[in-house]
Amino acid sequence: MKLIRANKLYQHDLEVIVSSIPVQKLSGKKVLVCGATGLLGTLLIDSLIYLNRKNNSGIAVTAMGRSTAKLNERFEEYILRNELTFLIQDITEPFDTKLNFDYIIDCAGNSHPAVFNSDPVGTLLGNIKGVENILNLAKGCNARVLYISSGEIYGQNRSDNPMPETYTGILNLSTSRACYPEGKRASEALCQSYAAQYGVDVVIARPCRIFGPTMTAADNKASAQFIRKALANENIVLKSDGTQKFPFIYGADAAAALLYILICSNSGEAYNVSSPLCETTLKEFAQTVADSQNLSVKFELSEEPGGSKVNNALLDSTKLQVLGWQSRFNLKDSIERTLQILSYTQL
Questions:
Q1: pLDDT tens, 281-336?
Q2: DSSP assigned state of 25
Q3: Are the CB atoms for 33 and 45 separated by under 8 Å?
Q4: How many CB atoms are closer than 10 A to CB 8?
Q5: Residues 6+ apart with CB under 8 A from 166
Q6: What is the pLDDT of residues 237-277, one digit of tens each?
């Protein structure tokens, strides 16, 4: 990660993020990021520390994860400079009641298709138990919670139009793959229940498919597989016909959107996080990655364990745009930036 953070393009990503939000609302706040070592958690922590360095904002940032080794691998330079605090905790276990935060961002939980296949029980219960513990912590210290759900809660779109936050799609409950979207749905319901019964201040983000240079070695989503192939100068392998319509978003755009929701939205509201600049088919995404490195797309049709069967998952991000957020990066630029930044270090 140290090599990535030194990259000028990545530094520009962080500048775009902090320049997209009303940063004064974060000054002097205590922020807990759960699931800190993932793609989003890492990017959010980098953004908050970048903001501290740039504006002397005095944000007390705590990174939570289960593994000290993984936290050190991601954030050792911040620890050495006393810019970050670690909280070693499994999110499925209750928090110490003495902890105190102003904002809690829940990025924790299984999010990779292979894990949905190998550990559906852990995926489902991890989401529900995790958000329960976070909500109890927030209730005790009067923190605002940003729960990061997923656009997968909508299931299969019944029309060709992008799905708004009020949409109710179709989910297939006859397979264990439902562990992920149903876990997110139940967790959202728990958020709304804590808000109604206990007055917990909670807001919800429903991101689409996020990619970017902070992706982890364990990430086996299709976009991550394509990017790794390109970095290795190998042809891109597509395991379906690629006609599925998906909304993608670059990590920096997603992080800016999440921070915007955290500090600017009304309590109890849910927002789709999707970029109109990155709506495409899986085949077109693969081809854009291939073209950027002068490679080809090869088809090896096979069943991807834990993969989604949805063929139209486009999201309507109008509500978030009305709130004040705008995406900055188009698909081609996002892919090229990811490859250029990661070329300094191989995953």
A1: 999 999 999 999 999 999 887 666 656 667 788 999 999 999 999 999 999 999 99
A2: G
A3: yes
A4: 9
A5: none
A6: 998 889 989 999 999 999 999 999 999 999 999 999 999 99
- Tell me, what DSSP letter sits at residue 88? E
| Strand, helix or coil for residue 236 | strand
List residues bridging with 128 in a β-sheet.
none
User: What sign for the dihedral angle of Cα 51, 258, 306, 180?
Assistant: positive
Please give the C-alpha separations between residue 98 and each of 6, 101, 215, in angstroms, as whole numbers.
Answer: 36, 10, 33
Q: For residue 339, which amino acid is it?
A: L
Place of tokens 């670690």: 86
Reported pTM: 0.94
Provide the phi-psi class of 35: left if phi over 0, else alpha when psi is between -120 and 50, else beta. Answer: left
SS3 299: strand
Q: Could you give the CA distance from residue 95 to residue 85 in angstroms, rounded to a whole number? A: 16
